[in-house]
Write a structure and sequence with these properties.
about 400 residues, alpha+beta, 2 domains, 8-stranded antiparallel β-sheet, about 45% helix
């Protein structure tokens, strides 16, 4: 079967091949998936730009993060915890952490009702510097929007995850459409013709920036899908672990029949253990037991500003004996399996922090371009629609004379 197309006075015959059919189907998918998910992708891109530099923005805008360094050692948790507890109206903090000699200590409280407070204290004097209700914190609000669209998690999370999955499909279809048909078209796929008309510039922005962005956005999207779909997280762990199942995180159990040594404070004991393991400028701290049978936990973060490179230790809150734990976040990062390391790095890959400042810059521009694609894509579609409305008339077998387009 042959198809005919008219170019001027010449009739050109061509046989429809698999490639043209593939491009047609791909273009149709790309268009309608983009229309369906565009607004959410735009929103996720903008909020992703903000979250990429959260640490840096906080450092400039929150002076209570810093204190005047002193020669004296930090006060242990037993001295800071009572002052922090006073800010909670009868409740007790969940944990406390220390950082550098010029940084405030941080105590925090959270519960199942989504109450979340941070208390910043001078680690040398126990003075309370700031109490923050994290439900009103700007970055926390942005994060809730980025994860859940400010909807209940059981509703917002599947919506965001679905839009992210669609975006992954769009990146694949976009690469198919971007792929140059011949050698002459190859140059146009890598550069933007800035001196052309605005429609051509917009088209190049969508195609060229979309191509370069894909290699960054694929990591952002995959890490987002890990949070969005349990099946995706399980599948990724299965692949990276060569067939193992993602283990649940389970705290070890303390021996409630035991009696702690007289004079021993479990929080201080773990604090001194962690302080001995931490190097200068490394973050360390204590998580208090949530129940009488829970273990007390200590941690050392070897790369503050990220979450992945940390070691976690669990102790019986009564005997102070070290206990084994299970899950991705059990033990040290250095000794973790490849699959566990990848799982731990998920958030830091998502925001680019795993590569330091260069990674955050990549994540920022990747998110910015992601946000621009629905806009430039809509403009391309809108331009083509207008062009078709003004196109030369269609012909029929009975009358080949020009006929004005409707609408």
């Amino acid at each position: 079967m042959e198809s005919k197309t008219k170019t001027g006075l010449t009739t050109v015959k061509k046989k429809p091949g698999g490639k043209s059919i593939l491009r047609s189907v791909t273009g149709w998918l790309h268009l309608w998936l983009g229309i369906g998910s565009g607004i959410i992708v735009l929103f996720l891109g903008v909020t992703g730009c903000i979250l990429a530099f959260e640490e840096e923005i906080r450092s400039f805008t929150q002076p209570y993060l810093y204190v005047q360094p002193q020669e004296s050692p930090f006060l242990p948790p037993s001295r800071l915890k009572p002052e922090a507890d006073k800010q909670l109206g009868g409740k007790a903090i969940n944990g406390i952490e220390y950082l550098d000699r010029n940084r405030a200590a941080l105590a925090y409280y959270y519960d199942e009702e989504e109450n979340y407070k941070q208390i910043f204290l001078d680690p040398y004097t126990a003075e309370v510097l700031q109490v923050k209700d994290m439900r009103k914190d700007f970055f926390r609000i942005v994060l809730d929007g980025h994860f859940y669209l400010w909807l209940p998690p059981e509703i917002g999370q599947p919506v965001v995850a679905s839009a992210t999955l669609i975006f992954v499909i769009m990146m694949i279809t976009g690469l198919v459409l971007w792929w140059p048909k011949n050698k002459a078209a190859r140059k146009q796929r890598f550069t933007i013709k800035w001196n052309a008309k605005w429609r051509r510039v917009n088209y190049d922005l969508h195609n060229v920036l979309g191509f370069y962005m894909t290699w960054v956005a694929v990591f952002i999207a995959i890490t987002g899908l890990v949070w969005g779909f349990e099946w995706f997280a399980q599948s990724l762990y299965f692949v990276t672990s060569a067939g193992k199942t993602l283990p649940p995180h389970e705290h070890p159990v303390s021996d409630t029949t035991a009696v702690m040594q007289k004079g021993k404070n479990a929080g201080d004991h773990v604090y001194y253990l962690m302080a001995g393991k931490a190097k200068q400028k490394e973050k360390f701290g204590v998580f208090y037991p949530a129940t009488p049978a829970d273990a007390i936990e200590g941690f050392v973060n070897h790369r503050p500003g990220t979450y992945y490179n940390a070691d976690y230790y669990h102790y019986d809150q009564y005997t102070l004996q070290e206990l084994p734990a299970t899950g991705v976040y059990a033990g040290s990062f250095k000794d973790a399996s490849l699959a566990d390391k990848i799982a731990r790095m998920n958030y830091d890959i998502h925001v680019g922090a795993v590569l330091g400042l260069p990674g955050k810059i990549l994540a920022f521009f990747g998110s910015l371009i992601c946000a621009s694609l629905p806009v430039t894509g809509f403009m391309v579609w809108r331009g083509r629609k207008k062009k078709k409305a003004k196109a030369s008339p269609v012909t029929s077998s009975k009358n080949t004379a020009p006929r004005p387009a409707l609408g």
